[in-house]
Amino acid sequence: MTHRLTLSWLSLLALTLLGWWLGHQPTLALIQGEWLLWAVLVLSAVKGQWLIDHFMGMKTAPMGLRLAVSGWLLAVLAAMALFL
User: Fold this and answer.
1) 3-state secondary structure the chain
2) Which of 18, 65, 69, 73 measures 20 to 30 Å from 56, CA to CA?
3) pTM score, whole prediction
4) Helix or strand or coil: residue 82?
């Protein structure tokens, strides 16, 4: 169990570093434009759902609670997408 959580945490850290790297590459921003922002937003959605499932224990939670928390994540990301 501990090994799986450590691997999950390291994977989340790698995805965070990837998102940071994508956001700080001036040449990528000039080439990709808005698609780069959407890629970082999707990366954030994946990381958020991963956190909900593995670290908050929602994988085994009742479906209503899991849908409420995942819906909250979707609402926050949709609000962020409004400003892209």
Assistant:
1) CHHHHHHHHHHHHHHHHHHHHHHCCHHHHHHHCHHHHHHHHHHHHHHHHHHHHHHCCCCCCCHHHHHHHHHHHHHHHHHHHCCC
2) 18
3) 0.78
4) coil
**Domain total for the chain?**
1
Q: CB under 8 Å to 56, separation ≥6 — which residues?
A: 69
pLDDT (tens digit per residue) in 20-79: 888 777 666 566 667 777 888 899 999 999 999 888 889 899 999 999 999 999 999 999
What are the start-end ranges of the E strands in 18-75?
none
What range defines the domain where residue 68 resides?
2-81
